[in-house]
Amino acid sequence: MDDEVLVGVELLDHFADLLQIATDLGAAKSLAEEAAASLGSGSTYYGKAQESMLLFVKQLISHIEKLQMFYGKAGQYAYVTYESFYQSDTALAAWLIKQTEGSEG
Question: How many domains would you assign to the chain?
Fold first, then answer.
């Protein structure tokens, strides 16, 4: 039974890790958007590489958005799996209590 409890705890640990990754990706996207705005305005850098740098930052933003979607789906999967475990454990506990009460009478 302790192994089953550990699975739930480990799953919650993974869920927390996924939330932290999502938070970090959000911060990275904000920085990339600031860089794109700064490069686009021409106030930070003006030169031959400006267009290439802006293209790179826009691709970075797109990549981060895809990672956010990926880790978001992983977080949803972890949460749904945890909920499923919880519901199964609750149903099993209710059944065991019912069986125990029936054998005592």
Answer: 1
